[in-house]
Amino acid sequence: MGFSRRGVLMLAAVLVGAGTIGLAAGPAGAAPAPPNIVTAPTQIAHTALGDVGYREVGQGPTLLMITGFSASMDDWAPYLVDALATHFRVVVFDNAGVGDTSSLPAPLSVPEMAAQTSALISALHIGRCDVLGYSMGGMIAQSLAVTHPWQVRGLVLAATQAGTGKAAPVPPAVQAALDSGNPAEVLSVLFPADQVAAIEAYVAGVRSYPDYYTASATVRTEQLKAVDQWFAGDDASGRHPGAIWARTLVADGTEDPADPVSNDLMLVRLIHGARLALYPDAAHGFVFQDWQAFSAQVGAFLH
Known about the structure:
The protein is an alpha/beta fold. The protein has a single domain, classed as Rossmann fold (3-Layer(aba) Sandwich). 37% of the residues lie in helices and 16% in strands. It has an eight-stranded mixed β-sheet with strand order 1-2-4-3-5-6-7-8, sandwiched between helices. Helix 1 (5-16) crosses helix 7, helix 2 (78-84) runs parallel beside helix 11 and helix 3 packs across helix 4 (136-147). It is globular and about 50 Å long. The protein starts with a helix and ends with a helix. Residues 3-27 have low confidence and may be disordered.
């Protein structure tokens, strides 16, 4: 999920004041600095399906993180990425048409975004890796695991839905909030109203990126059509989650207004051996609210 830079800055000014977040480099000879995705440069991978903008941080087995509807790499809370980077070499990137990533021919679809993700894995010579897909990114991750199983070692599906045509879709009012560009409305989907500290931390985190950006209105419209097609069961790779044999963790907040727990239970039933993790008093942004517990669980599950 993403919202305008102006909206982020205005809300951040109210919530957290004028300070920024960052980690200074240590003195010569000191221990290596902890991971810091905010200072990681954007790189360009030249893939078989166009350029893909990406960043990486950390060391270890590769964890590819696929973001969701309307979002850019800058919508990943830095503290979540940095926590995961203590376990993994984390690669974050922009979906088709966002940032420096090439657009794909219309009409955009989840399988086409999965194919571009596969092309990125090939271009970076990653081989077989772990994949974390969030929201729409979880749909892309499922499609990738079905169509390119040799590239996916482990799978984390966060706040996402099956593409069988039977999952409960995002309610229209919730989708309107996510697509509104109004930061307060977007945050109301991501966090329960009582999680003020989590909201403040998230806004401060995304504000710490030097040039926060998100998907254009045109790309959001294309993504929404792709998501609707997925929900309708019109994508072959979405109709067969039982073909996923990567070890899979399905996770969500119990109060997610965009994705009821029934959808998570459906994925667990359909994917062989999948495990379920639910976070209480958390909504669609549980990955940011409960980042410490979630990053630790991901690290333990995938190692």
